[in-house]
Amino acid sequence: MPTRKTEIDVAKGFALFLVVFGHVLESHGLWFNWIFTFHMPAFFFLSGMTFRPEKYLNYRHFLKDKWKKRILPYFMITAIGFLICMLRPDYRLPVLQDGLRYQLTWIFYYAQPKNLYIGQCWFLIGLFMAELFSYTWFRLFGNRSLTAKGYSLVALAFIATHIRAVDAFLPMDRLPWKIDTGFGAAVFVIAGYYATQTKIFEKLRPASLVLIPLGTLLSYYFGPKLFGYVNICDCVYSAAPYYFTAAFLGILPLMLTAQLLKNSRFWQYCGRYSLPLFASQTFAIYLVVEAIAKVTGKLYTPMHDVGDKLSLAISLAAFALMLLFVLPWHLYKSHKSDKNDKNGKNHISHINHKSRRRNASPTALK
Fold first, then answer.
1. Which of 74, 212, 226, 234 matches a 20 to 30 Å C-alpha distance to 66?
2. Phi, psi of 236 (to 5 degrees)
């Protein structure tokens, strides 16, 4: 079995905390804009690092696998979020005011549930589309020359940053199922794949102390400094060369830091359970905000009126709460794994015992 790349888990843990922090910070502030430059592209990139298009025989095989890993979890998370919102009166009221048709449109057409506190699960559908486009790209260009690959990726990046131009010709105000997001996300998935193939971050690791601050500063400069707010979810981009440059420069220090801290058990844990942690983030953030309101009497609204220092404190508390949410699942899986290991060892021991008896000489058996 292939060994698990712990640096990918660690990087997912880092990116996950940045997602939480970014969804608490006041919108369009300095830190907010910088985080949105690369935090979701980083997740697509990390998914690309484990993407293996060569293992799929055809589109049917691909879709069967991704249905289980992307589409089914999206609907499961949506159902759980809807149930939780129905149980809490404060959460239920906005959902009922929107009406059933509104909710179904956002769940099944836009693939981004509204007012259900799990809108972030759009990432699963966006990733599905990104992997579908990436798989198609590998079938078309995977064995072509480096020049053909390069030009095709430039074309893909150009389409991604201009795709919303088709909205004017649609009956709805946007393409369904994050198709538009999928084009830009596919660039990061493909890049992640080649990062694994070339082992680029392992090669760059000796220069980490220089590249981490340099990549951070340049990411800020080509991102929020020059162009302000971007968001791959809503296809809000700067010009393609600047957008992708800023995003990849932000991913670089994230990955190099993960290389340096790849043995951190805590961040490995966070990355290993990134999906349930990612899905629970909004509930955790608002539970912390509600707790602050009960103690202080002041109700803060994430992404609106929370200062930088308080945002960091709320993010840390919410992150801890998210880890608490996932702890029972972790304990269950650990217990199940230990049980399977024990059964496996007993089975191997039994086989070895039978083998020794079978190979023993007649004299020894007597």
1. 234
2. -95, 105
Residue from 221, 228, 213, 211 nearest 245 by CA: 221
> What is residue 23's DSSP assignment?
T
Which residues 6+ apart lie within 8 Å of 85 measured at CB? 91, 92, 95, 115, 116, 117
CA dist 364 and 350 (Å) reads 19
Torsion of CA 111, 274, 303, 167, to 10 degrees: -30
DSSP structural state of residue 26: P
Q: Beta partners for 236?
A: 231
Q: Which amino acid is at 49?
A: M
pLDDT, tens digit, for every residue of 51-91?
999 999 999 999 999 999 999 999 999 999 999 999 999 89
Q: Residue 89, exposed/middle/buried by CB under 10 A (0-12, 13-18, 19+)?
A: exposed
DSSP lists the bridge partners of residue 231 as 236
Residue length, the chain?
A: 366
DSSP type of residue 222:
I
Q: What are the tens digits of pLDDT across the range 215-255?
A: 999 999 999 999 999 999 999 999 999 999 999 999 999 99
Q: How far apart are CA 76 and CA 65, in angstroms?
A: 16
